[in-house]
Amino acid sequence: MLQSIKRQLFKIVDKPFRQIDKKQIRRTNNIQLIPDAVNRKGGKVSYAEWAHVIGIFQTLFNQSLEEKTKSQILDIGCGTGLLGIAAEPYVKNGGMYTGIDVMQRDIQYCKKNYPFPYYKFIHFDLSNPTYAASQDKELKKWPVEDNSKDLVTALSVWTHLSEEDATFYFKEVARVLKEGGKAIITFFYLDEEYENTLRQRSDQKGKYHASNQLKWIFEKPAYGSKEWYSPKWTKNPEEAIGLTKKGMQKLIDTSGLKLLNYYPGNWKERPGVYFQDVLVFEK
Fold first, then answer.
1. Among 19, 108, 139, 242, whose Cα sits 20 to 30 Å from the Cα of 125?
2. pTM above the 0.90 mark?
């Protein structure tokens, strides 16, 4: 009851706070596009965290894009526009940001909240047990032309895809990218660094702390896969999925993309650029 009251108060306070805060912004104009608390989604509700993540990925975009203007950016799983805000400086002068999401409600919100000629939003009718269970279960290509994008982004998307879906849509990333184009995608990457941190999440008898906030232990095969795993607490695998090094190599081999940079996430009990692992690929 108390928590519910606090959440309601937070939503009430958020509106006047944002109105006042916007007047204080001097050098980061595009964070004025941050939505209200009700529409800040994607596991991040805090205004401060949205601003923080926007800054992180805007920097990664700047490092990855050869041309800083007139960019063609495709954002998979765009939600309510987090990376769309980060992309704004790179597309507003002759470029185009295209956001795709399986959540029709989020797409409708984006169309209303970002009514700019350089923003385009597409609802993708595809089933996901966690986010859109009733939609079309047949895997199909994105409604995007071949070799048309300078950059593809996906924040916390492959962390909700089974092996079959992850492999199919990783090949889609390669299809839509221009030659030399980049892809910035986040994962729960189950590499040696992940294995080495498991000790920090267990007691002296080697048992995992089920109540520990550090609950990112991937030990349940996702749909019987040998390389894609979920934590035991998930009701369906798509709530959280990690993949092994062999799984990552499968994505690379089947798509033809090349891994350029790897930024381990702070979910692995270490300082990191972002919470999830960020990997940068090139076509």
1. 242
2. yes
Task: Report the distance separating Cα 63 and Cα 80, nearest Å.
Answer: 24
> Do residues 142 and 170 touch, judged by C-beta distance below 8 A?
no
Contact criterion met (CB below 8 Å) for 69 and 98:
no
Beta strands in the chain (DSSP E): 72-76, 96-101, 119-123, 149-154, 177-187, 189-190, 220-221, 228-230, 242-244, 258-263, 277-282
User: Residue with structure tokens 């692992």?
Assistant: 277
pLDDT in tens, 15-36: 888 888 888 888 888 888 999 9
Instruction: List pLDDT tens digits, range 48-89.
Output: 999 999 999 999 999 999 999 999 999 999 999 999 999 999
